[in-house]
Amino acid sequence: MSQQTPLQTPEDRPLEIAGKIYSSRLLVGTGKYCDLEETRQATEASGAEIVTIAIRRSNIGQDPEAPNLLDVLPPQCYTLLPNTAGCFTARDAVRTCHLARELLDGHDLVKLEVLADEKTLFPDIVETYVALQTLVEDGFKVMVYTNDDPIAAQRLEDMGAVAVMPLAAPIGSGLGIRNPYNILTIVENAGVPVIVDAGVGTASDAAVAMELGCAGVLMNTAIAAAARPVLMASAMGKAIAAGREAYLAGRMPRKRFASASSPLDGLFF
């Protein structure tokens, strides 16, 4: 009887970003919920430890008269990830990061996104390069939203990004991973965490991202726009864990035809 050659499986490593280790590989946004209470419930249900905050759209102390997001997501319980959503130039993105650092008492971990247009919300890679270089020089630890181009992702890492965040599909589209082989190439070449950002629609999309070997997934609309956001947040947390386990386990090879699970070789008749 022939012996099967054991499949090679990847080494399990914790998610480490900017020197800090996280047990959850799901990162969540904080916008688009009906109110702050739903934001709190969904975030808790997701099990996420990193929450991203759109500085231009969320109150984290800029307006003392308005509800403060930090009242329901306190910094002592979560790693805050201020982002530059809504910025269309490197200059605006850099200014927004400096505002976040001021509001959060020197906090230096940020998510950079510089958008090209309001319709597609695709990244402007040239402006992203410019902003990243400035932010790294200014002492920020930058996680960078980018397209699914492996060359661009590698260059962002080389410039000092602590994580690269390729889109799965356009922001808010829910289309899932459109170019899995591009994502796979980015993962294979990366020396920093690769976190899929944008385009996830449901739990199976998140699981696919993890099965490709991504270090994590960031999402907002997929949870907040669900009919039951809190339940979807819980489902996403489970999908991330299942996808990671499947990646580590090593899936069976794809075959054109099935083979008997109990072969006839070596049997007596």
**Roughly what is the average pLDDT, rounded to an integer?**
92
Number of strands: 10
% residues in beta strands: 15-25%
Largest sheet, if any?
A: 5 strands, parallel
Which residues form runs of ≥5 with pLDDT under 50?
Answer: 1-6
Helix-residue proportion: 25-40%
Q: What's the end-to-end separation, in Å?
A: 16 Å
Label the structural class. alpha/beta
Biggest sheet strand line-up: 5-4-3-10-9
Form type = globular
| Rg | 20 Å
Q: What count of helical segments does DSSP give?
A: 8
Written as H for each helix and E for each strand, in order along the chain, the element string is EEEHEEHEHEHEHEHEHH
Identify the notable features of this structure and list them briefly:
269 residues, alpha/beta, five-stranded parallel sheet, 15% strand, globular, disordered N terminus
